[in-house]
Input
Amino acid sequence: MSHQPIQDHPDTALVAVGGSIDPATIGRLKAELQALVEDGARRFILDCEHLSYINSGGLAYLINLVGEIEPEGGSIALAAVQPKVHIVLKMMGLLEVFKFYPSFADALNELRSEEEPSAEPETEGEGDVVAFEEMAAPLAKEKPDPEPVIAAAPSAPRGNLILQFLRRLFGRGATAG
Output
């Protein structure tokens, strides 16, 4: 893990996240981000270009981290989020929790412009960059899954939908009561 100060932004950490955030990797991510918080980081830009999967534990940790750093002016921005991961964030209602950028460079440029409107653009390689890569082989590139479509017949009452769901899940003998 290398730490290089971002000129005029010592409270910001740039973190490259790759592979999966799952039970095998969450401990390492928590340890690295918590160490950065203890060193004074309050704002994080997570470069998610190579992040292929995040489980509920990873999402919960990031949400808790936002809750910890937001009262002190902190935030977490996600850059270059893959469509598959973006769908999960959207389904969980987390699009309002994080700020999103099309690329790592866009997030960095906005950080620069927020506090220094006339600042020179940062050159590549400058800043605190923490690489977090999964040890396992990367997953094969997949086409992004389409967003799920949930539709019901307009005349079907809600109770019937629940009953139908339970019957599909547990068999014909399931009841709603």
